[in-house]
Amino acid sequence: MSKVNMVSFVIPTLNEAGTIAHIIETIRREVKYPHEIIVVDGNSTDETQDVVRKLNCCRLIIEPKRGYGVALNTGIKHARGDVVVIVDGDGTYEIRDVNLLVDSLLKENAELCLGARMNGLYEKSMDITNYIGNKLITFVFNLLYKQKLVDSQSGFRAIKRSALEEVKLSEEDMAFATEMLIKFAKRGFKIIEVSTTYKPRIYGKSKLKRVRAGLEIFKVLIRGIKD
Prior knowledge:
By secondary structure, this protein is an alpha/beta fold. Helices cover 41% and strands 16% of the residues. The chain has one domain (7-226): Spore Coat Polysaccharide Biosynthesis Protein SpsA, Chain A. Helix 7 (175-187) packs parallel to helix 8 (210-226).
């Protein structure tokens, strides 16, 4: 792929009224590629949906079933671009770096480009438990699937749609990100990383349930070897 006809942004949200407008406006201002924006909302109880509607520049999909993986799968199914970018709705990722992710995806002829955060962490952006957990999961993933990633759990990714169409992703929550990596690695798809930054959350609370998410991810890591 030498050029991109459209980049589809898929943004899962759950009570992100304080950050979603900034993310959407930054995409529209900073992204050099033709693009569409798809917000998949898991029935927020704040004004997230109203904020998105008032901006009147993207598709809002209400997903009645909650779950990170559920939201992303729904958004991907509606995406029309030849590159799909997934990014969280909490404002922690540097949106302007999407140009670097997509540029690198094309230049390296890769199927997936991750925005690696570990060398660009702002103060208090990632607590020690998440940091250690990320390092451990990434180490195990690299060991089992013969990769050399730095940040396997990054939620900031540029992916060729043609690659997504070749795999079936079924995890409904946080293990979705790891399932994608496993299935791409087993297919022999090229996975690369570029460095990005990671900022502290400025609105609301994290929805991550660490212990449950960690157990689900390790189950997927082990199950992927047996499948």
